Amino acid sequence: MADARPFFWEYIPTPVAREVFQIEGGRPLAGSIRVSGAKNAALKLLAAAVLTGERCRLENVPEIEDVRVMAETLADLGVVVDHPAPGRYEVASGDVDWLFVPLEAAARMRASFILFGPLLSRFGRVIISNPGGDRIGRRPVNLHVDAMRALGAEIDYRNGYYFAKAPGRLRGGEVTFPFVTVMGTENAMLAATLAEGRTIIRPAAQEPEVDDLITFLVKMGAVVERTAPDTIVVEGRRRLRGADHRVIPDRIEAGTFALAAAMAGGRVTLEGAPCELLGALLEILGRVGVEVSCAGDTIVVEGTPPAAGAYRPCDIETAPYPGLATDLQPPTTVLLTRADGLSHVHESIFEDRLEWLAELRRMGARVEILDSRHATIAGPTPLSGAEVAIPDLRAGASLILAALAAEGSSLIHGAHHVHRGYENIDAKFQHLGARIQRLPETASTPHA
Ligand code: EPZ
User: Fold this and answer.
1) Are 183 and 111 contacting, i.e. CB atoms less than 8 angstroms apart?
2) DSSP strand E in 236-350: where?
3) DSSP character string of 398-427
4) Residue 299: Cβ-neighbour burial (10 angstroms; 0-12, 13-18, 19+)
5) Which residues pair with 232 in a beta bridge?
6) Can you tell me the distance from the alpha carbon of 407 to that of 27, in angstroms, rounded to the nearest whole number?
7) What residues contact residue 322 under an 8 Å CB cut-off, 6+ apart?
8) Residues with Cβ < 8 Å from 296, sequence gap 6 or more?
9) What letters, b where the CB count within 10 A reaches 16 and e where it falls short, cover 398-432?
10) Residues 297-306: what's their mean pLDDT?
C-alpha cells in the first residue's frame, strides 16, 4: 500500500471538535484541586526521548490536546509511543525511519519545533515545518535555527520547511542568544547532548520547565549543568540511555486557579502547587490584597466575592523567569478589573498578547489597549455575562475566570483552545462549585 503519509506540500487540516463553555457566574468557589503535570515540561520531555533508542517512561503527563498532538507526531516518525494509563507515556525511538515533521504538526502545535534539535542530533538530518506565528505574536524561530548552525548544522529553508543536516555529527560550540528564548534554549540544549565537545548556552532561559528537562537529560546520561543562573553547559556524549521521570507540576495551571479563587471569591486549596515557582504571582496577589498562604506544595487562596468589595490596583510587567510569567498575564489582567483604581499592564514578551481584551470589554471591563504591549484596566468594574470567543489558550482560561465572577450567564466559543493546555479544566471548576458546562458547538449555538 502506498505510504499513507501525505507529501509535505499537502496540508490536510485535522478537524477539531468545536466546543463552547456555558457558565453561570456569580458564585464563589470552594474546595481543593490537584495541580496537573506541566504542559511546557511534558512536551519537551517527550521530544527528549528521541535522543535515545531505549525506552523512556514519563508519569504525571497532563491529559491535554497538545500532548496528544506531540504523541501523534512522534508516532508518525516511527517512534513507539505507549499510553498505558492516564498520565503515563512510554516512548522508544529505536526504529525511527521518517525524519519529517509536517506542517500538519506545526499548524496544530508550535512546540513541535522542539523536535528539531533532538532529531538532528540523533539522526544527522531532519525536515521540519516552520511553525509560524499564532494569536499572540509572530513567534519566529530564527534563534533556534541560528543555534543549530552554531552547532555545525547545514540548513536550507524552502517552501516553509527547514532542510537540516549535520555532516558527521553536530559539534559543540557557543550558543549566544540576543535575549532569553525558552524553546530556543531547550532546542540548543537537546541538540548539544549528542554533539562532539562542549556547548555553552547563554543567556539560557531559567524557567523551571528547562530545569526539569535538564534533570531528565542527566538521568539519560547526558552531561548538562546550569553553571550560572543564565548559563547552561553541555558536554556532548556518543549516546544516551532510557530513563524514567515524573513531570513537575504546572505552575501556570496553579497560578490560573489561584487567580480564579481571587476573582470569583471563596477559599480554594491547590495541592501539588509549586509555591517556590510562583513567587512573582504570589507577590502581586499580596499587593492587590488577596489572602494567600503557601506551604511546601500547597497554596490556599481566600478571595472575596465581587460584591464584597474591591482589591487594590497594581501595575504588572511580564518578564522571563523568575519574573511574572507571560502566560499568567491574561488571568492577572482579569483580576485587575476588580481593583479600585487604574492598573497598568506591560506585556514585554509577546507583541500581540493584549488583543483578546476586546472580548473582556464585552463583559463590561474598562480596558484601554494603548499599544501592542501596554494596556490599562480601570476598576472596580462589575462584569456581566456575555457571549465571547476565545482566540488562544491563556486568553481562553482568562475568559472563564471572568465569566465565573460575572453576574449572569456566559457563552464562551472556542473551548477547544483551552483543552490544549489545561487538563479537565471544566471538571476541576465544577469540583470547586462552579456552574460550567462543556457543550458541542452546534449550528443552534448562538455565535459571537
Ligand atoms: C515558551 O514559548 C512557552 N511554550 C510559552 O507558553 C511561553 O509563553 C514562552 O515560552 C515564554 O515563557 C512552550 O514552552 C511550549 P520564547 P517559546 O522563545 O519558547 C521571541 C503557553 O501558552 N523569539 O521564550 O516559543 C518570541 O517571539 C505558551 O503555554 C524570537 O524572536 O517562547 C518572543 O517574543 C505560550 N525568535 C520571545 O522571543 C525565536 O527564534 C520569547 O519567546 C524564538 C523566540
Assistant:
1) yes
2) 244-246, 266-271, 291-295, 298-303, 316-317, 341-346
3) HHHHHHHHSBSEEEEE-HHHHHTTSTTHHH
4) buried
5) 201, 226
6) 9
7) 206, 279, 280
8) 275
9) bbbbbbbbbeebbbbbbbbbbbbbbbbbbebbeeb
10) 96
Look-up of cell digits 488583543: 355
pTM (predicted TM-score): 0.96
Using the mean position of ligand 1's atoms as its centre, give its distance from the Cα of residue 136 in Å.
10
Where do the structural domains in the chain lie, given as residue ranges?
Answer: 19-36+249-440, 39-246
C-alpha cell at 104: 500538519
Q: Is the dihedral of CA 234, 240, 245, 250 positive or negative?
A: positive
| Ligand 1 pocket residue status of 181, Cβ below 6 Å | yes
Does residue 212's CB lie within 6 angstroms of at least one atom of ligand 1? no
The CATH homologous superfamily of the domain defined by 39-246: Enolpyruvate transferase domain (3.65.10.10)
* CA 200 to centroid of ligand 1, rounded, Å: 20
Q: What's phi and psi for 89, nearest 5 deg?
A: -130, 140
Residues 34-88: tens digit of each pLDDT: 999 999 999 999 999 999 999 999 999 999 999 999 999 999 999 999 999 999 9
Please tell me the residue having the least CA distance from ligand 1 atom 27: 139
Residue 341 one-letter amino acid: G
Fold: same for 19-36+249-440 and 39-246: yes
CA–centroid distance, residue 349 to ligand 1 (Å): 8
| Atom from ligand 1 closest to the CA of residue 321 | 12
Domain spanning 19-36+249-440 has what CATH number? 3.65.10.10
